[in-house]
Amino acid sequence: MNELDAIVDSARVAFSQAATPAALENAKARFLGKTGSITELMKGMAALSVDEKKSRGAAINLAKQAIESALNERRQALADAELQQQLQAEALDVTLPGRVRGQGSLHPVSLTMERLEAIFGSMGFEVAQGPEIEADWYNFTALNTPEDHPARSMHDTFYVEGGSTKTPNLLRTHTSPVQVRHALQHVQSYKTLTGSDDLTGMPEIRVIAPGRTYRVDSDATHSPMFHQCEGLWLGENISFKDLKYLFTEFCRTFFESDDLVLRFRPSFFPFTEPSAEIDIQFQQGPLAGRWLEVAGSGQVHPNVVRNMGLDPEQYIGFAFGMGLDRFTMLRYGVNDLRLFFDGDLRFLSQFR
Ligand code: DAH
Asked: Looking at CB atoms within 10 Å, which of 53, 140, 147, 149 has the fewest?
């Protein structure tokens, strides 16, 4: 093997051993650099004759080209390898199952509340809230419920320690106390606004108050914590026919059933006179023909109107209190109330 072939060979070996682009450039310098073997051979030609220069020069050039092409080949190979490595490092396994973020959903009773607020909202009702730990006065006394009324007995009411008549001492047994709280506030705001005690021109009170309520009770249709929605419409000329119209409209919209029939059945509540229980009857579906009790209602008792800071000779209206769990069960065809409060996601996630 002549000297040039040996140089080309050793260049090929050196290039193939260079594992990185930097190592390859170092190896290149040994052959093609300023003091590289090929360069040195070129320098050596100065002493040769013209003819010798021609043939020697051509031979050196061939060797140089062979080294350059070996170099380029190796450069490409290293670049390919690097790309390959990068692709592998960044590879995505598209067959892996995705990281799913569980989607939450509103509780069916919350859906009922939202629906109710939207429907009554469209009929000009505002939404009020009251405390769940309530004072005896708001829960009973202000609502014309005398001291010896059975609803006050320990059997029905969860009492909490401490408290006096006007400080919190029980878990509210119904949403009715919000009637009095809201009316008092409504009257007070109007007085503050006008800077006078004269209520002439005060807007009517139209409010609903959905929320949690508590009683010592637990079976398939009763839960110690349950939901009600109170309604109050009070003004100077509000009558039972307004209640009938409003509640019928509400129920037909809520259940999306135009032929739903309502029945107002005489009843008794201390805070209304006269009082009525409201039953509904579906004309279609699995419950068709059955009367289902959904709310208590009545014309607000004069004593309650007085406790609202209003003159019962001037202000009149009606109130109602409905069971939201009942409405939710009827709307979705659920037959055991406890399902709502067991926290079983298989049940709850059906109400998206
Ligand atoms: N508060 C009553 C209850 O819990 C329901 C009720 C009846 C509310 C008549 C009212 C009403 O506002 O007028 O059973």
From this structure: 147
Query: Which residues form the domain of 148?
Result: 108-351
213 Cα nearest atom in ligand 1: 4
What pLDDT is stored for residue 154 in this prediction?
66
Q: Within 10 Å of residue 224's Cβ, how many Cβ atoms?
A: 13
Kindly report, residue by residue over 19-36, the tens digit of the pLDDT.
Answer: 999 999 999 999 988 888
Indicate the number of domains in the chain. 2
Residues 61 and 31 in one domain: yes
Q: Is 176 in the pocket of ligand 1 (CB under 6 A)?
A: yes
**Across the chain, what does the average pLDDT equal?**
92
Asked whether residue 316 is assigned to any structural domain, the reply reads: yes
Looking at the fold, whether 142 and 183 belong to one and the same domain comes out as yes
Do residues 180 and 298 share a domain? yes
Instruction: Tell me if 297 CB under 6 Å of ligand 1.
Output: yes
Q: Grade residue 49 by pLDDT with cuts at 50, 70 and 90.
A: confident
For ligand 1, atom 7: residue with the closest CA: 296
Does residue 321's CB lie within 6 angstroms of at least one atom of ligand 1?
Answer: yes
Does 273 or 219 have the greater pLDDT score?
273
- 74 and 114 in a single domain? The answer is no
126-185 pLDDT tens trace: 999 999 999 999 999 999 998 888 767 766 899 998 777 788 899 999 999 999 999 999
